[in-house]
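Sequence of Phosphatidate cytidylyltransferase (Struthidea cinerea).
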Amino acid sequence: LQESESENKLDGETASDSESKSDFGGSSPVPTSDDTPEVLNRALSNLSSRWKNWWVRGILTLAMITFFFIIIYLGPMVLMTIVMCVQIKCFHEIITIGYNVYHSYDLPWFRTLSWYFLLCVNYFFYGETVTDYFFTLVQREEPLRILSKYHRFISFALYLTGFCMFVLSLVKKHYRLQFYMFGWTHVTLLIVVTQSHLIIHNLFEGMIWFIVPISCVICNDIMAYMFGFFFGRTPLIKLSPKKTWEGFIGGFFSTVLFGLLLSYVMSGYRCFTCPVEFNNDTNSFTVDCEPSELFQLQEYNIPVVLQSVLGWKTVRMYPFQIHSIALSTFASLIGPFGGFFASGFKRAFKIKDFANTIPGHGGIMDRFDCQYLMATFVNVYIASFIRGPNPSKLIQQFLTLRPDQQLHIFNTLKAHLVDRGILGSLEDA
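Predicted 3D structure, token representation.
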């Protein structure tokens, strides 16, 4: 009854009132207020709390966007490093919540094992990625070739070591709590590490598959906040009382338009559209290639219904722009549910933010709750509608086989092409 009354009370309170309280000894697991710089506090001291928050969020948002442009300029390897750092920080914020909630139990090895499992999972995922995308580099270096050959066995052995360490750390009277925290760690790994790994995969397909989805989520977050701030009247969902239908709808149309414009600009640059590859001649990673059909201007017929309105019969655009509509639509309609999920998680523990890393915005996880859901969609979208068999990867794997295996595949392929009449026509030509 007490828990039910607490939940009912929570539903009737505002986010700022309810989320600042805690079920655990009256103190919050993580800080509930942002460390706003003193300079901003003095400059905005005459404003109301509503407008002060608006300016703080706005200034910090511009700073983060500027930082985002800088790391894009520095290239894909720096982007990958930043994604790794963000992943570690998000993992730290979520694990810290669990640790602070139950810190009085002083669980043995909990934090050590949590970070150990993070290391194991990252070793597995990044090892798979390096082997998949940079096969030539791996085969050229003897240590990398050995690690690649036994990668999954090494990964399993590392995880098994952590599993045994957990069993040995079990303490009487705390079994249930320790298994609960074991599950907490693994769910955090599933949410954070797996999604960040998919972000890296999207990046290697071309920086445009990394930048456009992330930018769409950022645009939707900003525009939904702007429309909600100035025009919001109708609450959208109880988990986030400050979210409104006006902000949700305004953010949707703004994000779709933004996605079309950004995709048009980026599709004309090879550095954004080409996949990341390793160049054996220069011993460096390159993003230079001949643009695929996705990034070549094509002419499309406008539906008859819209011809009278627009006055055009055809329009020239990149095929990727059509795909950007799907990406921006997901970022606007489904992406916010990642934020709602995070809001539900924070309400469950009566906390306002995951941390106070960014003044006016909370923790890193507060800014990336929608990004991780978006990353999964983009990866599935590429695998389902964009990516096909990669001939260069097949050839690389073919060259690593023994001569007798290569000869067998050659004869099989030759017989198949002759049966289909393709080889004969090529010889005649």
